[in-house]
């Protein structure tokens, strides 16, 4: 998301605008779970909806017309998917209607992905694996295709029977983490599981009495997905156990407005994504100030901050790659690749040969 006008609406005193601002902010942020980015056109459309100038139905129609006139020329470009799913998530989050049933879960997937996936709203009939960055390329063991409906029905029936009466908030948070991680692990659909699960979960939390109207999902969607992964992965021979601790930190921030740091690098199973050692500030500061002055007119403020952090971490002619970028500034892999490309195109960094593919260093400033 290149523009973020939604936080001001979340703080808006007018309830209707605040609720719509939250819905859009969350909807757009959730696209990050699949490495997708929305367009500027969607942001402008969202603002018009929040301001009451157009309805969700009109926003849908505008997007449909926009992409009929501007079809993607690259098969890898999924911006249209991100835009269309975002408006549908925002509409669903703005609705009060909800029923805690497996059919509601399937219905949410169908509403989000009709016209995008041929299997929208359908239970998958094949087994799947997915390489996960947080697992160093390993996969979670997802539900067996032959047992998906039975497993889904069982999880819902168990949750319906469960009583939250007399539980402490710690116990409630833990139970919710276990429930939602198990629901996600089934992976009922071929694609779109995390976005569907997030929307369903937010609506379920509301009927439990939680006012989920902050920016935690929007700002930490990829962390949410990675915490679901870690809650469902074991590699006992290497001392790695499934754990809901990361998901519980996310939920404490979401539901209790606590402020636990949510860093994706902390979830990586390798344990090698440590904080980098900072160089001598006296030797780096002049170079940093020059760099900052050069790039402030080229990039958004957040990108400038990321580039400065990288320069501090890799002074002089230090060599780094995408995994180093993720480690230093804690962004998802797709954004790390984009940032490296942007920096290279603007001549801020240069590729280095002889150190493996995708290695760079900052260019020396010419005298």
TrEMBL record:
Organism name: Sellimonas caecigallum
A Pfam family it matches: Fic
Classification via PROSITE patterns: FIDO
Domain of life, source organism: Bacteria
Annotated ranges, domain Fido: 100-249
UniProt catalytic activity: L-threonyl-[protein] + ATP = 3-O-(5'-adenylyl)-L-threonyl-[protein] + diphosphate; L-tyrosyl-[protein] + ATP = O-(5'-adenylyl)-L-tyrosyl-[protein] + diphosphate
Keyword Nucleotidyltransferase: yes
Protein name per its UniProtKB record: protein adenylyltransferase
Keyword Hydrolase annotated: no
């Amino acid at each position: 998301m290149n523009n973020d006008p939604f936080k001001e609406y979340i703080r808006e005193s007018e309830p209707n605008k605040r609720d719509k601002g939250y819905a859009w902010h969350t909807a757009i942020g959730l696209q990050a779970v699949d490495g997708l980015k929305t367009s500027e056109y969607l942001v402008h459309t969202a603002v018009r909806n929040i301001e009451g100038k157009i309805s969700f139905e009109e926003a849908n129609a505008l997007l449909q017309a926009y992409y009929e006139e501007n079809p993607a020329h690259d098969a890898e470009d999924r911006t249209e998917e991100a835009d269309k799913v975002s408006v549908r998530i925002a509409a669903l989050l703005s609705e009060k209607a909800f029923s805690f049933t497996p059919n509601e879960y399937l219905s949410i997937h169908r509403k989000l992905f009709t016209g995008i996936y041929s299997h929208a709203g359908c239970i998958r009939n094949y087994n799947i694996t997915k390489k996960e960055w947080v697992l160093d390329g390993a996969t979670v063991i997802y539900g067996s295709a032959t047992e998906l409906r039975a497993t889904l029905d069982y999880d819902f029936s168990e949750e319906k029977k469960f009583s939250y009466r007399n539980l402490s908030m710690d116990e409630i948070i833990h139970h919710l983490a276990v429930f939602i991680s198990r629901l996600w692990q089934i992976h009922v659909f071929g694609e779109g599981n995390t976005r569907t699960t997030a929307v369903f979960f937010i609506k379920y939390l509301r009927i439990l009495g939680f006012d989920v109207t902050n920016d935690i999902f929007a700002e930490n969607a990829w962390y949410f997905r990675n915490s679901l992964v870690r809650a469902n992965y074991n590699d006992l021979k290497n001392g790695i156990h499934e754990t809901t601790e990361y998901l519980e930190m996310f939920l404490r921030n979401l539901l209790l407005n606590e402020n636990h740091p949510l860093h994706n690098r902390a979830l990586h199973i390798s344990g090698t994504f440590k904080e980098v050692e900072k160089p001598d500030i006296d030797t780096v500061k002049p170079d940093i100030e020059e760099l900052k002055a050069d790039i402030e007119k080229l990039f958004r403020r957040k990108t400038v901050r990321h580039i400065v952090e990288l320069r501090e971490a890799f002074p002089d002619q230090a060599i780094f790659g995408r995994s180093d970028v993720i480690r230093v500034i804690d962004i998802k892999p797709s954004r790390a690749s984009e940032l490296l490309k942007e920096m290279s195109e603007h001549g801020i960094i240069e590729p280095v040969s002889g150190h493996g593919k995708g290695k760079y260093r900052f260019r020396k400033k010419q005298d």
